[in-house]
Amino acid sequence: MTQLQINEVAPRDGFQIETTFVPTDEKIRLIDALSASGLTRIEATSFVSPKAIPALADAAEVVAGIQRRPGVGITVLVPNLKGAERALAGGVDEINLVMSASDSHGRTNLRMTPEQSLEQFAEILAMVRSHSRGSSVFINASLSTSFGCPFEGEVPQARVLDLAGRLLELGVQGVTLCDTTGMANPAQVARLCEAALAGFPGTPFTLHFHNTRGMGLANALAAWQAGIIRFDASLGGLGGCPYAPGATGNVCTEDLVHMFEQMGVATGVDLDALLAASARLPTLVGHETPGQVVKAGKADRRYPMPSR
Amino acid sequence: MTQLQINEVAPRDGFQIETTFVPTDEKIRLIDALSASGLTRIEATSFVSPKAIPALADAAEVVAGIQRRPGVGITVLVPNLKGAERALAGGVDEINLVMSASDSHGRTNLRMTPEQSLEQFAEILAMVRSHSRGSSVFINASLSTSFGCPFEGEVPQARVLDLAGRLLELGVQGVTLCDTTGMANPAQVARLCEAALAGFPGTPFTLHFHNTRGMGLANALAAWQAGIIRFDASLGGLGGCPYAPGATGNVCTEDLVHMFEQMGVATGVDLDALLAASARLPTLVGHETPGQVVKAGKADRRYPMPSR
């Protein structure tokens, strides 16, 4: 059975919405711990304007400061050409471009329609290809609202597949299908994943779920049953959805790893190392995290018989 | 596609561990609201010693006070012969016996080994059958720790299936396989459900999950894929696990209904009515509940475009 590949996104998707600035050395310490745990990919930060996201203003310092390990790809979110240039200069392994599958979410979140995003991606790809070290950098694109848009509702599967195809034609090497606001359900996930794998064989698709409505692990299960082996996940379940106050964030890395390992599906990840890293998060961000296994312990936890 | 049958257990499994006594009239009001929502079965209370569980000391008043609706079975948990007599006197539709699949959990929780529980069930069944109105009462048995025991660990599937078979031979009409402390994973759930349905065709099996480690809905999905259509669930995700402090409780009724309805699997339940009832729970129990959809809204919730 193929081993899962988990892309840890807490340092980017998690920290970006925190009101507490996590000190740069703490970010580096966390990423180093994660990268020693067996995760294959870590989204370390975002090369975005510090005005837009002050929490990630230290992107360059973080990328320069972390340990690099063979087999652990360091990826960064990049919103535009300037961000891509900074990312290349920083020496990352992967650039993760982001666009929305829906017009209204694109305009709101990125100030660009999907068509405008695709045009911009063409420029970014040309720049990366012309860059001396660009040839070795993997280009991924994340398709937000692939399972629904909080403004316009349903996003047709045909539209998502069409955009994925156009991304691949542009030269993007991997596509992440994102359930940005936790609208996906397992039946929909199975349909889209099956169609994507059948339509673009060999393409590395990653699935990005939020646990907004409690379906995060059920959706991951459905994606895996459909043949997906790559998942974004966030330590402690950090992250969130600005349109669902009170809801939990990204699907939780250690809960995802725990489920699959319990099922006998190898992840290559040292779950105890993840749990130790997760246990430190409340101190870093100043609040409890939604992760469950860090509170309950693993399923093989044993209790002494109570004396009576 | 067969409609799901949801057994609401919050009034019993949820309230029994609350430190705040929910007033009897509030319990009745809640059960009446739930029974108007399309749920097919409600576990209204437990006829247990008031000393053992003071929170359910008003069991007889609750059963006497609730509205009875055609199509909504009122079931009660019964730990012993005396409880069964009280339940019959109260005029319930179903009695839910409980035993453990593991020796150590049985001794700790019920002061009985599985063998002793089976002997006791034989007496209870004989009493019920001899009772003038007993012939119309459905007898279910819940098998605790069917997916693992917090004291001894693995509970072999063959043992669970053997106990289910012996329950059915005794005259029990339905069996609930309980993941009492949230140890189950979807692969294990699929295996046990497939084996149970194949081994005892026609038997109404119910699955009872806790969300202790975040896998509640994933396990329900796996059970449904294996052919299970009956689930226990608790409004708001009330309930808990004494061996997993900080962990969430039973799988949440409205989150379960929401997932299946989003998948196009009919539940017959009015989700808005459930959500309205769930929104009142924090007032009744004095704390937030783990349910997610009541906080985030349904997946089809739409937001206005932010002005900028």
UniProtKB/TrEMBL annotation, chains A, B:
Lyase as UniProt keyword: yes
Keyword Metal-binding: yes
Sorted UniProt keywords: Lyase, Metal-binding
CDD domains recorded: DRE_TIM_HMGL (cd07938)
Gene3D superfamilies linked to this entry: Aldolase class I
Record-annotated Pyruvate carboxyltransferase domain positions: 4-275
PROSITE patterns tied to this protein: PYR_CT
Gene Ontology terms, MF aspect: lyase activity
InterPro entries: Aldolase_TIM (IPR013785), HMGL (IPR043594), PYR_CT (IPR000891)
Family from the record: Belongs to the HMG-CoA lyase family.
PANTHER family: HYDROXYMETHYLGLUTARYL-COA LYASE (PTHR42738:SF7)
Designated name of the protein: Hydroxymethylglutaryl-CoA lyase
Organism in which the protein naturally occurs: Halomonas tibetensis
